[in-house]
Each structure stands twice: as structure tokens, then as C-alpha cells.
Design a protein that fits this description.
The protein is of the alpha+beta class and 143 residues long. The protein has 4 helices and 8 strands; from the N terminus they run ααββββββαββα. It has a 6-stranded antiparallel sheet with strand order 1-2-5-6-8-7. Strands 3-4 form a two-stranded antiparallel ribbon.
């Protein structure tokens, strides 16, 4: 049976951030922690070994695959910082136009440092992601 790698853990978020090797990336992680916490109102939790997530929802695909995931999150990886959002493609493109220096994948946006982006647009991304998931999933599936 499939077991998701990214699931909520009991690991300490602050300990994880303190173990980020690069001091600038560590500082960015603390800044992101503050922005995500204030914007969502959710407590930060570790998801898997390296994602800091906020809130959660339960998904189930037509294939039968299901699991839990954070509403939004980030990970201060060695190469870049990954930001995890769930917004529709049109919203994503609109927000990315004024976001700042980034690259984008299907499910996440990558940045080199927080100073490269517009914090107000980051907050919009966070709010739009939470709104999108609340509209997509029922209240019983959201935490």
C-alpha cells in the first residue's frame, strides 16, 4: 500500500530551522515562518523531514489515492527556498507577475532569498491558496 513521504511529523520546527547550514537562509526561514504564521493563523508543523507546513487538508483523487497535506508551506533547501501553494493556474500567473525574482514549478515556487520577493504578494499567495483549498475541500477535510 502506498505510504506518502510528506506527512505531519512531531519534529520541532525551530530545531529544524536552527540546523539550516546557511545563516542567510536560516534568517529567511525565520522571516517566512513569521509571515506564514501571521497570515494563516496556523501553527507551523513539520511535514516530512524538510517542509514547514501550515494547516492541513485531506485529499482523495479519483484513482483512490488519498492523504493529507499542508494548506501552504515552505522549505529552506540548499539550492533554493521552495514555497508550496495551491492556487488555480490563472491566479498563479497573475500573482507571479508581481512576485519578484523566482522560478516556478507545477506545485511550488522557488526563490533564492526573501529579499528577492514582494512580501505583500507572498501574503496574497498564502491567502489565495488557503481560500482555494477551502473552496475545493469540505470543512471536514480541513484543519
Amino acid at each position: 500500500m502506498y505510504q506518502p513521504k510528506t506527512k505531519e511529523m512531531d519534529s520541532n520546527v525551530i530545531e529544524f530551522i536552527e540546523n539550516v547550514d546557511n545563516p542567510k537562509k536560516r534568517g529567511d526561514a525565520y522571516e517566512l515562518l513569521e509571515v506564514f504564521t501571521e497570515t494563516t493563523g496556523f501553527e507551523a508543523k513539520m511535514w516530512g523531514p524538510s517542509i514547514i507546513g501550515f494547516g492541513s487538508y485531506h485529499y482523495k483523487y479519483e484513482s483512490g489515492h488519498e492523504g493529507d497535506a499542508p494548506l501552504v508551506g515552505f522549505s529552506p533547501r540548499k539550492a533554493k527556498i521552495s514555497l508550496y501553494f495551491s492556487v488555480d493556474d490563472k491566479q498563479k500567473e497573475e500573482l507571479l507577475q508581481s512576485f519578484g525574482k523566482h522560478t516556478a514549478g507545477k506545485g511550488c515556487v522557488y526563490i533564492n532569498k526573501v529579499a528577492d520577493i514582494e512580501i505583500d504578494v507572498l501574503k496574497d499567495f498564502i491567502n489565495q491558496s488557503v481560500k482555494f483549498l477551502r473552496e475545493t475541500y469540505s470543512d471536514e477535510e480541513l484543519n
